Amino acid sequence: MRSSILRRNQQILQTCEAASTRRSFATTSSRSSASLTSTCQSCNKKLLRPVSQSKSQRRWQSSSTTREAPFEASAPVPQTHYEFFPQTLPQGPPPSGPFHIDTRTLRKEFLQLQAVAHPDRHPSHLKNRAEATSARINEAYKTLQNPLLRTQYLLSLRGIDVAEDETAKVEDPELLMEVLDTREEIEDAQEEEELEGLKKVNDERIAASETILDEAFREDDMEGAKGE
To answer: Domain named J: which ranges (predicted)?
Structure first.
């Protein structure tokens, strides 16, 4: 998986998005940003404003009328990243559920869960548990929203560890050349539309890889998943 198609496309996508972000950052409205953020009273970090309570939040609170109940010692602890997002991923991980994830829906549920889990919303005796839960939610979201990290995670559930190899120094000449060529195209791009074109092509490649991975995990073909 070290020189996999998915890994190559992820690197190219990150390059395109980084360039696009740099170009658009200067034009971002500070007023718009301020309207979506608030400040944590404990750590003074900027936070997204909590969204309205959803079914996902109510599910966490179903055993009690208080919002602290999910953080009591007796509350069930999710065993996989998928269990944190029952609204988006009701079927769980493959093969019972699909490999593909609607990342917009996932992000919406993530924000709803974090609005409930933030330590400032809990009394002192539950803050440690809330902090631990919040950290696990963050890790679960970070992993599941990224196809490459999601693949590595699913393989790890089967006892296959490819993360160390994936984080090793990139030595694949084909991968290096393609990333360098993409960076050159980005530097030569004069309009935002040109960057969008590059990103669209790469998104299509990633979607094709996700289709292959979906079939591989559904058929319990771990070698096929590793190869992609």
So the answer is: 80-157
Question: Of 144, 143, 138, whose CA–CA distance to 102 is shortest?
Answer: 144
Domain count, the chain: 1
pLDDT digits (tens, 9 = 90+) for 32-89: 444 445 555 555 555 555 444 444 444 444 433 334 445 555 567 788 999 999 999 9
Question: Residues 55, 114: contact at Cβ < 8 Å?
Answer: no
Identify the DSSP state of 203. H
Strand partners, 37: 48
Q: How many CB atoms lie within 10 A of CB 112?
A: 22
Tokens standing for 188?
């030569």
| SS3 assignment for 89-130 | CCCCCCCCCCCCCCHHHHHHHHHHHHHHHCHHHCCHHHHHHH
**Torsion angle (degrees, nearest 10) of CA 152, 98, 90, 102:** 80
Q: CA gyration radius for the chain?
A: 20
The percent of residues in the chain predicted with pLDDT above 90, rounded, is: 26
Dist. CA 180–CA 176, nearest whole Å: 6
- Evaluate if pTM is beyond 0.70: no
The two three-digit tokens of residue 54, written as one number: 């959803």
Q: What is the DSSP letter of 39?
A: E
